[in-house]
Specification:
heterodimer; A: mainly alpha; Helix Hairpins; 3 helices; about 0% strand; elongated; B: mainly alpha; Four Helix Bundle (Hemerythrin (Met), subunit A)
């Protein structure tokens, strides 16, 4: 499968995530769009690792080149899980204080 | 056109359609459900690339744990279509145009990035299997793996400290 297809798919998913962040006002939806962007990057990393592996396997059949990319994706997932737990705690705290998840009410630094 | 191309096309269309539905649906619960569909489509892409470990981890961690947490928080706050905050129509349009411009620039910059011989290996190749990844994880990457446990501990403490009532 040409690597271009994967690049275009990831760019499309990433830009849909950015449009979501820019157009929605619900803090939880914005958070979900960030997860979507992380997933687009993960998909591209896996595709590149498989491309790298195919090139390395042409000269050495037992090569394990490219597994670093997949482990990087694994660590991104670890960080995303930690981020979600803290982020949702912050959103819950914000909801308890202002009884809304509308990010336009979060403008206290302006005044 | 072989089976692989058909599967790739189907999963791509599914991922893009469901992510668009996620961004555009008014009800937050529907957004979460569409995002789960997107994650399953991405997991299908991982399986097509023979990265089976990541496909399973993606389903367990993202579609399983994280999305259930999102759904739980949304239902805890009782968010629905009526309480959904609405943005100004012009701001929405400006956001869509800005994202579209970014996509235009990225596609224009990257459309010739891969040459004819830059192929991603599909279906074949065994670096994505759990045996090889595990060997690599517990030899070369054992220190980052242990540090990530500290990260999880601090995230847990942070979530409890932020979440508890004063």
């Amino acid at each position: 499968m040409p690597i271009n297809y994967y690049i275009l798919l990831s760019v499309a998913l990433f830009c849909i995530g950015i449009v979501g962040v820019l157009t929605r006002r619900n803090a939880i939806i914005i958070f979900m769009c960030i997860e979507l962007m992380l997933n687009a990057v993960n998909l591209l990393l896996v595709a590149f690792s498989k491309m790298h592996h195919l090139k390395a396997a042409a000269t050495n059949a037992a090569a394990t080149a490219g597994s670093d990319g997949q482990l990087f994706v694994f660590f991104i997932m670890v960080v995303a899980a930690a981020e979600v737990s803290v982020g949702l705690a912050i959103i819950v705290m914000m909801y308890r204080n202002i009884h809304s998840v509308d990010i336009n009410f979060l403008n206290r630094l302006k005044h | 056109m072989g089976m692989t191309e058909i599967l790739f096309g189907f999963l791509t269309v599914l991922a893009i359609f469901s992510s668009l539905m996620m961004v555009t649906s008014k009800n937050p619960v529907y957004s979460v459900l569409w995002l789960i569909v997107t994650f399953f489509a991405v997991s299908g892409h991982y399986i097509l690339l023979n990265a089976q470990f990541l496909a399973i981890v993606n389903i367990i961690v993202y579609a399983g744990a994280i999305m259930v947490l999102f759904l739980f928080v949304i239902m805890l706050m009782n968010l629905n279509k009526e309480t959904e905050p609405q943005k100004n129509r012009w701001i929405k349009m400006a956001g869509a145009v800005a994202g579209g411009c970014l996509m235009l620039v990225l596609v224009a910059a990257l459309k010739d990035a891969g040459g004819k011989d830059d192929q991603a290996q599909v279906v074949a190749g065994d670096i994505g299997l759990i045996k090889n990844l595990g060997k690599e994880l517990f030899t070369t990457y054992v220190v980052p793996f242990e540090i990530s446990s500290i990260l999880f501990l601090s995230a847990m403490v942070g979530a409890v400290v932020i979440g508890k009532k004063e």
